[in-house]
Amino acid sequence: METFEFSGSTNIGDFLPIFKWVGLSGLEKRLVILQGKRDKFMQDLIEELRRTRDSSDFEGRTKTMTDVLLSLQEAEPEYYTDEIIRGMMLVMLSAGTDTSSGTMEWAMSLLLNNPETIAKAQAEIDKHIGQSRLIEESDFANLPYLRGIINETLRMYPAGPLLPAHESSEDCTVGGIRVPRGTMLLVNAWAIQNDPKIWAEPMKFKPERLLGLEEQIKRWHYAVTIWSR
Ligand code: HEM
Questions:
Q1: Which molecular function terms from Gene Ontology are attached (predicted)?
Q2: At 179, which helix (H) or strand (E)?
Q3: What is the rounded average pLDDT of the residues 126-153?
């Protein structure tokens, strides 16, 4: 919880460099303390799981991701160090949990507040899947309306509204603008995805608005990938 609260905080030194010259800011000091606490929490988990690997009920119990990483550590100890395992645990915890659960919560809330969209999604699922089995990931190709619901949720409520800060490692030119090495780039994804100049009635949940756009986005993404090489 503290990590999530922290990641949303503003570091004044990023905006007013004078604060960088007078030593660590309050936020940076908190970061050092937080990192220490976080590392200890994850290391304690690793130690606990390492201990239970030697106990008799190890074979019978469900394996966690960390159990798997500890098995890999036995096979390749020089690569799968505790530090690497802590890093992977951190990525799963910080990047993979709150983002997914928050997006699911927003999707459910949007569906409940827009009953006509539930009816359309149900009709699509009944038509393509029926009622005798659950949806598989491979079914998504045949469920454009459901894809529209997910994408529209991500548009309206992106789990990372202000993308993590990026920094250019080299001088470069992006879209005709010269970007010197070491420039911090802050992207307000929420503002782009809810910009009334781009989206008609951006505050309205309209899964169908993305249906026709999918092919266009794929082509655009391809163009960006080629261009950025
Ligand atoms: C709804 C779910 C998710 C959303 C909305 C989301 C969103 C994002 C965003 C916006 C970024 C930053 C992209 C950038 O600016 O470069 C990012 C990066 C990342 N995400 Fe997710 N994410 C989700 C789920 C996950 C899951 C489930 C995992 C792992 C299990 C994950 C792992 C990562 C990692 C490792 C990065 C950093 C990649 C890098 O180093 O460039 N994310 N995600």
A1: heme binding; iron ion binding; monooxygenase activity; oxidoreductase activity, acting on paired donors, with incorporation or reduction of molecular oxygen
A2: strand 177-179
A3: 94
